[in-house]
Amino acid sequence: MKSSGIGGQAVMEGIMMRNGSEYSVAVRKENGEIEVKKETYKGVGSKCKLFRLPFIRGIFSFVDSLVLGMKSLNYSASLFMEDGEEEEEPGRFEKWLQKKFGDKAEKVIMDLTMVISIILAMGIFMVFPTWVSTLMKPLLGNGIWMALFEGVLRIAIFIAYVGLISLMPDIKRTYMYHGAEHKCINCIEHGLPLTVENVMKSSKEHKRCGTSFLLIVMVISILFFLVIRPETLWLRLVSRILLIPVIAGVSFEFLRLDGNSDNPVVNLLSKPGLMLQGLTTKEPDDKLSAVAICAVEAVFDWKAYEEANFN
């Protein structure tokens, strides 16, 4: 296996694939046609050399992934709004935003959605486990056991959340596209021609997956919080929030190493993340794989890559 460096994300009835500063979004419309859009996205990390240093680049890479992911999701959703019979009347808040910001209203809504999502995620996966573990202080004390309980609870909440939303039909469909994305990348990185047949027989788990990244974040947070154990609740909450960028930076470096290494120890450490992907990826069909191939071919010359790496 040779890492190609490309990555992507499932969107509404499609896939976004990114290769460096170029990205594409391939969506299968209601009429069965596959529409592909290719654009350039420089990202925050490209604006300053400091942002590309190890342990710092992971923070900005995560921000870029959120921004580009939301942008791609909005684009895929807009294709189905165009095909819809009737467009819903904007609510009061949307009308106020359109009046206040004009053409930038859509970007403002996207930014607000992302900020609210981050706040909710921090509340559910960071603040709540810290608060619950504090309630257990009389039983566990303020030492290692309380920090371990907090970390295990955080991972349990994350796994339960991922498992529950996978039961929703729309999310299950998205997870099938997620599987198609991984299969395409695995097909290329194992030197196979990018055809539907080869994609379908490739693995739907990949070491550079965002699911693995989030699990790594939670495991590394346990190691950090075993050492950093403030006495009061408010200090504990502040330390958890302030350390998120640091933990994300360390986690990104491990994921980067994992995706570029076949070391047995690294492979062993990546197993939990690959197992968790069993919840966030589902087996796609031929049509979904065809969409993934279109997204890849729009931004990545896989034939030249395989000729250079696999002869």
List the helices and strands and how they pair.
Layout lengths: L6 E5 L2 E6 L2 E7 L5 E7 L16 H27 L8 H10 L3 H31 L1 H4 L3 H22 L3 H21 L6 H5 L9 H18 L5 H10 L1 H16 L4 H17 L5 H14 L2 H9 L1
Antiparallel strand pairs: 1-2, 2-3, 3-4
Description of the structure:
By secondary structure, the protein is an alpha+beta fold. The protein is 66% helix and 8% strand. The protein contains 13 helices and four strands. It has helices at 57-83, 92-101, 105-135, 137-140, 144-165, 169-189, 196-200, 210-227, 233-242, 244-259, 264-280, 286-299, 302-310; strands at residues 7-11, 14-19, 22-28, 34-40.
In short:
The protein has 311 residues and is of the alpha+beta class.
Compressed to H and E, one letter per element, the order equals EEEEHHHHHHHHHHHHH
The coarse overall form would be globular
β-sheet strand percentage:
5-15%
On the 0-100 scale, what is the average pLDDT? 87
Q: pLDDT below 50 for ≥5 consecutive residues: which ranges?
A: none
First-last Cα distance? 14 Å
Q: Please state the CA-atom Rg, rounded to the nearest Å.
A: 21 Å
Percent of residues in helices comes to 55-70%
Tally of helical segments: 13
Q: What profile does the largest beta sheet have?
A: 4 strands, antiparallel
Number of beta-strand segments = 4
What structural category do the secondary elements indicate? alpha+beta
**In which order are the strands of the major sheet placed?**
1-2-3-4
